Amino acid sequence: MARSVSQQLASARAGVSEVCQILLSPSPAALDRCAPLLKTAAAAVSACLPQLRRSKGTQDEMDEAQRLRLAVRHAKRLLEGAAEFHQNWNRRLGALSGGYTRRGEPAAVELGSRMQMEG
Question: Where are the domains of the chain?
């Protein structure tokens, strides 16, 4: 049996809410766990959009969409906070290890890249 639009939106919201819980203790491993959850949530929303557009949305669907919107906004704030924290530490690391540029900015830090391999 096909899931209703409200159920699909609720499923997406549950995934985004789980991401928010994970991001309360951000780390590289936590961010790696968030990516598939967000991808699944996005797929759930994409799957129900055509039906939602055709029906213009019931009150139940609109309420669930609003709850999803709030969860996404919360996840966005948490991700922005994590990015800002990371950026500030890179600036501090640059100042400590490389000093400052002629313009007074902390020196750039070469962090390398992350690679994931399965085999």
Answer: 5-98
